[in-house]
Description:
CATH architecture of the largest domain: 3-Layer(aba) Sandwich
Number of domains: 2
Number of strands: 14
Mean pLDDT: 96
Distance between the termini: 14 Å
Strand content: 15-25%
CATH class of the largest domain: Alpha Beta
Bound molecules: zinc ion
Structural class: alpha/beta
Strand order of the largest sheet: 1-2-4-3-5-14-6-12
Largest sheet: 8 strands, mixed
CATH topology of the largest domain: Aminopeptidase
Amino acid sequence: MKMGMDDAMEQRLVALRREFHAHAETGWTEFWTTAKIASSLESLGYPVSVGKEILDLASVMGRPSEETIAHSIERALQQGADPVWVRRMDGYTGAVAVLDTGRKGPVVAFRFDIDAVDVSEASDEKHRPFREGFASLNENAMHSCGHDVHAVIGLGVAELLMKRKDELKGVFKLVFQPAEEGVRGGKAIAMKGILNDVDYFLGAHIGMGIPTGSVAPECGDFLCTTKFDAVYKGKAAHAGGAPNEGRNALLAAASATLALAGIAPHKDGATRLNVGVLQAGTGRNVIPSKAVMKVETRGLTMALNDYVYARAMEIVAGAASMYGVEFSVAKMGEAVDALSDKELVDLVTERALAVPGVEKIAQVVSLGGSEDVSWMMRVVQQRGGKAVYFVLGSDIAAGHHNEYFDVDERVLGYGAALFADLASALSER
Ligand SMILES: [Zn+2]
Ligand SMILES: [Zn+2]
């Protein structure tokens, strides 16, 4: 069965992508985005679950303050989000739709991430979204990774599957994941149990250096990562009159930073550690009583990331005791490694060239970063299911996360068509 798409549908997807692009929302604040996805899915005939219904709240990481959440909800409503859906989300974003054909067959799940990046979009005539009037309306939030495209590909897949529902077998689950940036949302969906019965799991990213018309059937070298905030709490005192009465949180954080940079590399493979933010102190003549560090560790395997993280925890604690200050650590994000199954990599390779718009199969892409789709791949694979994460080529105007980022919108059409085609092929297994 072919899963073709006509020109009218392709044009609709482009218009929809521009709408999502304009309403860019960063991780855990995707209220407008989730409401739009949910209402689109509902009008296609899907039962839809949102927010708290699809998340294991204990596994939610790096969610902003309640004040930021409240402000984001307000903004989404002002920008026309459906209040019924926003209420149902209950402060949490993301959506899952299920198509049960009622016929015996496999359970196939798809993952599309929907959040924007913390960057303000270029207001420059050279930048097409600005020139053509669909640049982000929201300060410091821009779809500069392409997750607007992912969301729309997901809705395209939903439409194609619903059209062919009478010819398909099994169950299809479409996951629209919040907060991928900073790897904060994937674990909460994986741990909710939604994917426990999944036989085949498919995910993809657009761009990544692969040109328009090409598909890379596998994306590997995911780094395991842990993101954490460490907070030191000391005691403020007069820096001239009573410095001995103070407890210096700034010195603890500074010492920890230097020691963290000195964690020995591991013989078994690549590791990384970065202290990206260090904030401390209140005034020139005050012993600093508070310091905040934002840190990430990475490793090519779980064991390597665990090694760096365990050493980092010893150092953070050691620096606190050295300066007599208290400390706390909060996990802000986490991703594991992921390996695509050959059976599905082969299937993507086999089917891609038959999809209109796809002309070439590209080499395996090395991610060199982290992706929290890995949590979902892991739960599926641990229960005997198969998973794949591939790349849909698209020329890009600037690198991912850059304020001039833009995509070749042709990827919308063949992206959705390829996912739907894979679904129909898997439906027969
Ligand atoms: Zn990104
Ligand atoms: Zn991305």
